[in-house]
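Researcher: Structure for this, please.
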Amino acid sequence: MTNIFVRFFITLFLSFLLITSSSLAFHKKNSLSDNKNTDWDGSKETKKNSENLAKQDFCALDANAIKIIEVGGGEKVINEITGKQTIDEEGNPVFDDKEVYKITVKGYHTPEPRNTGGILIPTPANGLNFNISQDWRDIKLLTVLKMYCLQLKTEERPYKFKGSYLEDFYSQIAAENGYLKSDGVTGDYNKKLMEGPEGRGPVEGRDILKDGIIISNPNAVWYLPDFLIDQDLEIKEKAELKAKQQAEADRIAKEKAAKAKKKKARKDTNEKWISENKQKELTKYKEKKKDFDDQITALNTARDKLAEQFKEFEEFLNIQEKESQIAIEDLDKRGNEEIKNLRSELRNAMTNFLSKSDLKEYKDKLEQIKKYKFDNYENYKNLKSLIKRAEKSKSIEDFVGKDGVSLNLFGYEFTFKSKKMGIIKEFENIKNKEIGSDYKIHEEEIKKLRLDIIKHEDDINNYVVTARNDLINKDAELSDQTPWNLIIIGVVIVLIIIGVGVYLYFQRKEMDQLKREAEEKVGSLKNEFEGKLKSTSEQIKSAARNTQRSQQTSLETQEVIEEKPKTPEEIIAEKYDELVSDYKESLDDFTKVAGFKQKWHGLALSRKERQEGTKTILVNSSRAFEKAEIWCVTFSDKYFAFPGSTVKSNMATYMNLDFEKASRDFKGVYSVSTGSNYMTEPCVLRRGGAGFVVERVGKIVFPN
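Model: Predicted structure, C-alpha cell format:
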C-alpha cells in the first residue's frame, strides 16, 4: 500500500513539473523584467510577503525584492561651517545618496484588465506577434490561457496557479470549448489547443485559432504580457495615425467633390437666409427705433410742459408779489405791534422767494434746454443709418460681418464672413444702450428744473402766502375786537348832545309859554274849526269800520288748509340738495358763480402748508372766490368745501405726472382718483382758530 502511494505521488509530481514547464515555457522565453514600486520597507520578515503580492498584482512568473542606491536622491548636504547646501566643483547642489526599495518582476503582465468580449482569439487580428517558436499543435490550452493571464475581475489575482480558483475557471473554459477528460464531462485544460478533428480544435467545423476560445463568463478579463507592451503601444499609435490620415484624406476628397455644388448652394443659402431673416432683423431695428422715437417724444412733451409750467409760475410769482405788496401797504394803519411783526415776516418771505433773479435763472436754464436737438443723439442717428443699409442689402455678409456665421443648408456647411463689422453686431452694440450719451443728462435737467419750480412754488405758498394770510387774518381778528377808544369818544359826544338837549329843552319851554298866550287870543276861531274837522273825521272812521267788518266776515268763511310741518332733517336735506344743484350749475355756467357765492355765503380757501397735528387746516385764500381752488359755503351752522370751478377747467394740469399737483394741493382735503366722469364730493369743515379744520375728507374723481 505504501509503495502504491509513493508511486502515485512521484507520478503526480513529475506530471506537475511537465505541465508547468510546458505551459510556462512560452512566456519564460519571451519574458522581460522591470523594477516596480513597493511598500516593502527592506525588512527580511516582510520580504517574501511583498514578493508574493507583486506576483499577484502583476501576474508575474517571478518577483524579487531588492534595495537600490539612488545617487544624489536624498537630503541636502549642508556645510557645517556656512550652514548652507554644499556645492560641487561644477556648481551643482550636492545631495546624499538614498536607499530605495523596489520589486523586480519577471514575466509580468500589465495591471490594466481587458474584456474578452466572450471570445479569446489566440491569433488576434490586431497585429500582435506572439513569436511562438513552437508549432500551435504542440501548445496546450492552458499555455494560451496563461499567456493571456486570463482572470475573473470579481476575484483577487492569485500569485500562483496551483490551488487557486483558476483551476476551476480554466476547467469550465475547457469544457465550454470541448476539451474534456475521459468522463466526457469534466474540462481538461492540459489538452493541446489543436487537438481535435482536422487539427482545428475539439469542436467539429470550428477553427479554434480563427474563431477563438469561447469565454461565456462576463467577468472574464485578460492582461497583456510584458513582451507585447511596446508592440501593443506601437500598434495603437499606428492605428490612430492611420485613422487620422484616412480621415484627412476623406475630408479633402469630400471638399473637392463638393466644391462645384457648394458654389451654387452658397448662393442659394445666401438668398434663403436673406428671405428668412432680413425682415426679422429689420423688424427688431424698427422696434428699437420706435423706442427711441418714444423717448424723443417724451422729452419734447416734457420740455413743452416745462415751458408752460414756467409761464404759469412766472404769472403766479407776479400775482403773489402784487397781492403781498397790497397787503403790506393797505392792511392795518393803526400801528399794532403784532401786525408790524407779521408785515416784517412777509417782507422777508418776499425777499427770499419772490426774487426776480431766481426767475431769470429758471428762464436761462429753460432757454438752454430749448436748444437741445433730441433727434441728433449718436445712437439714434446710427440706428437710422443701420436701418437704411439693412433695407438696401441683399448679402448675408453685410449682416453677419466679422463675426461670421456657419449654416448647414442644402447638405453643406457654409461660413459667411466679411472684413467689417456686420449690421447684426452693430445693432447688438446699440440695442441695450441709451439713445445717446446726453439723454440722461437732458432728461435729468428737465426733471430738475421742473422740481425746482414746483419746490419754489411750494415755498411761496408755504412762506409768502402763509405769511400774507397770517397778516390778513390777524388784521381781521383785530378788527373784530371792541374799539374802546371809539366808544370813549362816542360817550363824550353823547354827553355833549345831552347838554345841548337840556339847553334846548328850557329854551323850548319858554317858547311854549309865549305860544300859549297867543293861542288863547284865537281860541274861538280854533274851536269852531276843530268841530267841523271832528265831524268829518267821524264819518271817515265809520266807513273804514264797515269795510273792515266786511273783509273779516269774508275771511272767516274761507276754508283754512293746514300744512304739515317738516322735520329738521328734511329741511337740512332739501337745503343740501339745493346747495349741490346750485354748485353744479355754477360749474357749468361761470356767470352763476357770483350768485352762488352770495346765496350761500361763499368764502375762498386754500390749504395751509405748514400743518400741525393730524388735522388739515384751511385758511383764507388770497385769490378771488371765482379763481380759488376751494369754495367754502355754509347753511344751518354747517360748513362744506367744494372744489372750485378752476379745478374742473384745469383738469389736465391736476392730472399731469400721476396727479402730482392734485395730490399736493389737496392733501388731507380731497381723495384723488379716476373714473368715467368728473365728479366731486364736498369735505365737511368746522371752525377752528383763524381758519377751518377738515372733519371729513371729500372726493375728486377725474375722468380716465
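Researcher: Any notable elements?
Model: DSSP finds 18 helices and 19 strands in the chain. The longest strand covers residues 62-70.
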